[in-house]
Amino acid sequence: MNEPLRAAVIGTGVMGQHHVRVYREIPGIELVGFADADEKQCAILSKRSAVRGYTDYRQLLDTELPDLITVAVPTALHYEVASEAIRRGIHVLIEKPIAETEVDGQALIDLAQEHNVVLAVGHIERHNPAISVLKKIIDEQQLGVIFQMRAQRVGPFPARIRDVGVVIDLATHDIDILCHLAGGAPLRVFAETQQNIHSTREDMLSGMMRFANGTTAMLEINWLTPTKSRRLTVLGAAGMYEVDYITQDLTYYENGAALEADFRSLQLLRGVSEGRMIRERIEKREPLRLELEDFIGAVREGRAPLVTGKDSLAALRIAHALVESGQTHQVIEL
User: Fold this and answer.
1) Cα–Cα distance list, 265 to 2, 18, 227, 237 (Å)
2) CB atoms within 10 A of CB 169
3) pTM reported for the whole predicted model
4) 281-322 pLDDT, tens per residue?
5) Longest alpha-carbon distance in the chain
6) The CATH number of 5-117 is which of 3.90.1150.10, 3.40.50.720, 1.10.1670.10, 3.10.310.30?
């Protein structure tokens, strides 16, 4: 039987508190502590979770000697906190994005390789069961040629956001998923952004990505919609799949004209007609639990996690290109 692994969480905002909860639920994991600069927050969470809290994360690392940690501090502090842990030989999962800048992101990747530790990044939608099933469907070419993907991630403005705009905070989820499903990074991007509520950053994105295989991806991301929606559609020759990230539903809208087509003819669109609507069977589980189980498995098995530092760095690079396009009104070649 595997020895218990000692885990800790640094940063106990909304996501950090969920990491505290889930680590405590996973067999074979001992949550030895958490850190947050807010002394009052530490006291409240420590009492609620029966886990020791620290206001100095370095003291946590040196006193509790965790095997692995979650870094859920503001983006600007990702490099500082993660690098301190990696240099101590501690395995690290960083809430997305990997870092504030591409330079810092690459430095973390290099540092993790140098110290032979696992570096995972919390692009949580990769662990959504509906996405896992959809990825298999696409890889098996059941949809034939993929024409277009469309991602919608909208909702009210979150009071927690201070240091990044909506592209870095929200769109990185969908950028990562779109690249994952397309099998690589886009060739070019274009974006229109708006700044309506956020004092220093964009709070609305209308973006486009073009991939080498001809697929076009659209992004509708904002903090301005009074109701929360997290959806993805993938349109191909055989029909269209729609994911509802919140409910983990995966629905197939069949192209009736493709029903009698063989595999080869699915590579060309010969017609479109309305077919059946089919709800795929999905084993629904909490994505964060799956994310942490994957991270722990990577640590135990000495393998790469599902979402690597390299994956997250690619998403960050594309996000920065979208921000630049929104500011310059130019197509950005990647």
Assistant:
1) 50, 47, 41, 9
2) 23
3) 0.92
4) 999 999 999 999 999 999 999 999 999 999 999 999 999 999
5) 66
6) 3.40.50.720
